[in-house]
Amino acid sequence: MRVLLQDLSYAFRQLRKTPGFTVTVLLTLALGIGANSAIFTLVNAILLHNLPVTDPKTLIRIGDKDDCCVNGGWHDDGDYSLFATDTYSMLKKNLPEFEELAAMESGYAWRPITVRRAGSQNGAKSVIGTFVSGNYFRVFGLSPAAGRLFVDGDDLKGAPITAVMSYEAWQQDYAGDPSVVGSAVYINTRPAMIIGVAPKGFYGDRIDTNPPKYFLPMNSMDEVIGAPYFTDPDTQWAYIIGRVKPGTSLPALQAKASALLKQEYAPLKTFTDQRAQKVLPRTHVVLTPGGGGIQNMQDGYKDHLKLLQWIASLVLLVACANIANLLLVRGMSRRAEISIRSALGAQRSRIVRQLLTESVLLSGMGGLLGLAVSYLGAHALLALAFPNQQNMPLTASPSLLVIGFAFALSLVTGVLFGLAPALMAARTQPAEALRSNARTTAHGASFLQRALVVLQAALSLVLLVAAGLFAQSLNKAENVDMKLDATNRYIAHINPQAAGYKNTEVEPLYQAIVDRFHAIPGVLKVGLATYTPMEENNWGSGVKVQGEPDLNKGASWVKGTAEYFDSVGTHVVMGRGFTPQDTMNAPPVAVVNQEFVKQFFGNRNPIGHRFGFSGPGNAGKDGAHEIVGVVEDTTYTSVYWKNHTMYFLPLTQPAGIPNNTDNPIDKDQSMYAGALVIQTAYPIAGLEKTVGDTLASINPNLTIVKFQTFQQQIDDRFIDERLIARLTSLFGLLALLLAAIGLYGVTAYTVLRRTPEIGIRMALGAPRSHVIGKVMRGAMLQAVIGLAIGIPVAIFCVRYVKSQLYEITSVNVPVMAIAIGVLVLAAAIAGIIPARRAASIDPVRALRIE
Q1: Which stretch of DSSP H or E encloses residue 508?
Q2: In the beta sheet, which residues pair with residue 148?
Q3: Which residues contact 234 (CB under 8 A, 6 or more apart)?
Q4: Burial of 336 by CB count in 10 Å (0-12 exposed, 13-18 middle, 19+ buried)?
Q5: pLDDT at 429
Q6: Which residues have a Cβ under 8 Å from the Cβ of 849 and sit 6 or more positions away?
Q7: Helix, strand, or coil here: 335?
Q8: DSSP class per residue in 779-814
Q9: CA gap 542, 428 in Å, rounded
Q10: What separation in angstroms does the CA of 22 have from each of 1, 535, 548?
Q11: How far apart are CA 186 and CA 837, in angstroms?
Q12: What is the pTM of this model?
């Protein structure tokens, strides 16, 4: 310990004597370790995060897919992750290997609820709510922050409607008022009672950008939100998570659950079709760890985060190569000191340990600075990845795991990249070093130093090419002709069902909305639709054209009003769009897009043909809708979705619900508008308040769920791509800066070591241009070798990221040329500074060094 303290004290003194070297190394380390720790903070928060529940390791999810939200039909691969109510009850009854199984709503984000406290002067608020089984909180082993949580009796058919509020909603909306517990509220105009508050920090069963504020029993789902699928054995809507008993064999449990599912599905209407009968034997489930909850967000961000972690690791490698170079230069400059210590009897191991202590001390200090950088960087990353999200259950604060990661990274960096310079410096022979003079030691940089510069240049080129590709991909995706017009257009998401309207009552409501908004000065078009083009939503069905063979093809569908196409900028290219006469009682009509015509009609004119749903239980429904028009192929959901077949229906006409034998009008949830699209003649300030007031004047319970400009909605679809493009550009420039510093350092060191030689050359008449050229050739040669290595590596690496690029499968010439040009320019700047300094050497002063 005494020797270690001596080494540390001596290391501090040495670092204090060379502040320039110390600051450079610390900043380099801070950036390299900080970038990695920031990315790892995000990885830890999203990919490695467990739910804040009791013993998450024993939780198992039945399913392995990111399925959402209400599905019907069969899966070709037979793998199921969403389940019907009857299926949940069957598994709960027949799988005693689980202590308990809980069910939870899969698509709550698309079905917000309206909540108003009874007796309050405040208006109704649109919030996120989710429906869960009565044992939901018990399965997770949670205790209430106030009141009580659900019991099985709360989740019985006909039981009074109860709700549990999230802790965050309790604090944000009610300032922690204890009187909220036991108070009456109206949820979608239905009377309910708040029975308790969920524990602090519990955000539900999955990480989400907008976690639920209210939890409701799933048996109240149909009454509260009108969900006829709750009792439909052919419709899957629920995720299932349970806690397994100790000693349970998961492979055996998975096989048993799969067999039970196959038996449950065999008699269903879904599997009466011949094609479904062929896939029925493949029916199975995959059990996955449930401690992290439903992995929807994790699945969506997994590839991006892994890519960023690899890129950050390359930046750290460039930083470490730079530090190794600096340590080599420092070690060589201390040869005389080390030689004297060796001559005085210091053992080689003692010298290596001293030098290694300095490098580990540097890396430790750099790691601490890196944690500060990672804290700020992680906040910036969260802001980039999830803009305008205030309730995200993610924190940028470094956890113990992140701190341990940064500490381990610092230690490995210090030992790995400090060992080689220490060994090389300690290898000096005392007699040779002490009798050497400037001329005999005036060689340039070592092979290892030059190799490290070459490595930095190669890695920098790879990162610059990656930055160029992702920037190009983003630019191409954002500039696709989406057949939309976002100019002076606004979108207000609404929920008429939550305001208490039955689907048979919405037609006069929609007319009132159109009339009221047309009365606002500057409003040109008012369209209502189930959902809008560039939101993360999609409704789909199988399609069969009347009188023609079933092609086993499907299409997405949207319902809208007469001005919907004009409001989003979609043009009719054949026939007509919707008119005010396409009402609930008028003959059912449809408009299709050009891709629909291509897929189902080829070169034939589709106008006048009829189509409907395909699949079991839909016999005789293939003539449900007459095609009256064709619109251009507007982009919906994502620009990555090519050949998107779509059809459009009037909002208040029945959709011919698949598999429904009851009154279709009474159960048709598609008659509820989800969005109001407003086109104005010019930008209108404060339009959100105007929209809210106008809706409230029609019905106080009719609230805005979300308001944004159409351009904001489009921009939101490129958040991930923008994050990757910005970070790869940032990391590429950081690597370039580090490589340039490394090249500058080696070139400057070479000039310093060769000062006597250069002085002699200039004394003998060598011109300044010759000296500059000689130094520049040495610097540029290292950059060129780095390019020669980096170019094929970059070309090879594209295959691993092309799935995340838009219509880019290889490195194109412009991107490669720009990356090479930037690197060559940086190398030239890094080389010219020491080159000009070398050409300014006074020969007389240089010779005096001898």
Answers
A1: helix 506-518
A2: none
A3: 72, 84, 268, 269, 270, 617, 659
A4: middle
A5: 61
A6: 438, 755, 756, 759
A7: helix
A8: HHHHHHHHHHHHHHHHHHHGGGTGGGSSS--S--HH
A9: 79
A10: 25, 51, 78
A11: 79
A12: 0.80
The candidate with the shortest Cα–Cα distance to 504, out of 586, 625, 585, 582, is 585
69 upstream amide cis, omega within 30 of 0: yes
| Alpha-carbon span 47 to 244, nearest angstrom | 22
Dist CA 369 CA 410 (whole Å):
11
- C-alpha 776/C-alpha 833 separation (Å) is 10
Q: What does the angle CA 704 – CA 709 – CA 715 come to, to the nearest 5 degrees?
A: 120
CA angle, corner 248, sides to 247 and 253, nearest 5?
170
Contact 115, 225 (CB under 8 A): no
Label the pairing between strands 540-545 and 553-560: antiparallel
CB distance 508 to 39 below 8 Å: no
Q: Is 124 helix (H, G, I), strand (E, B) or coil?
A: coil
CA distances in angstroms from 484 to 259, 277, 330, 487, 764, listed in the order given: 48, 42, 61, 9, 73
> Looking at this protein, which amino acid is placed at residue 556?
S
Distance from C-alpha of 763 to C-alpha of 772, rounded to nearest angstrom: 15
Cα dist. 427→3, 22, 351, 432, 636 in Å?
22, 24, 10, 11, 67
B/e letters for 586-622, b = 16+ CB within 10 Å, e = fewer, are eebbbbbbbbbbebbbeeeebbebbbbbbbbbbeebb
Q: What is the pLDDT of residues 658-696, one digit of tens each?
A: 444 444 566 778 889 999 999 999 999 899 999 999 999
Number of Cβ atoms within 10 Å of the Cβ of 844: 10
What is the rounded distance in angstroms from the CA atom of residue 144 to the CA atom of residue 142?
7
- Res. 150: pLDDT tops 60: yes
Mean pLDDT check: name the lowest of 215-229, 291-305, 425-439, 820-834: 425-439
Which amino acid, 405? F
Distance CA 362, CA 422 (A): 14
- H or E stretch including 774? helix 768-797
Burial class (CB in 10 A: 0-12, 13-18, 19+), 209: middle
Q: Which of 204, 193, 224, 234 is nearest to 132 (CA)?
A: 204
Q: How many Å apart are CA 612 and CA 697, to the nearest integer? A: 38
Query: CA–CA separation, 72 vs 51, rounded Å?
Result: 29
DSSP 412-438: HHHHHHHHHHHHHHHT--HHHHHH--T
Q: Residue 551 and residue 542: Cα distance in Å, rounded? A: 9
Contact between 309 and 402 (Cβ < 8 Å) = no
How far does CA 797 lie from the centroid of its chain?
22
- How many angstroms separate the CA atoms of 463 and 467, rounded? 6
Q: Which two tokens stand for residue 424?
A: 């090389």
48 contacts: CB under 8 Å, gap ≥ 6: 292, 401
Q: Would strands 589-593 and 625-631 be described as parallel, antiparallel, or unpaired?
A: parallel
Q: What is the pLDDT of residue 634?
A: 94
Neighbours of 437 (CB within 10 A): 10
- Read off the DSSP letter of residue 79: B
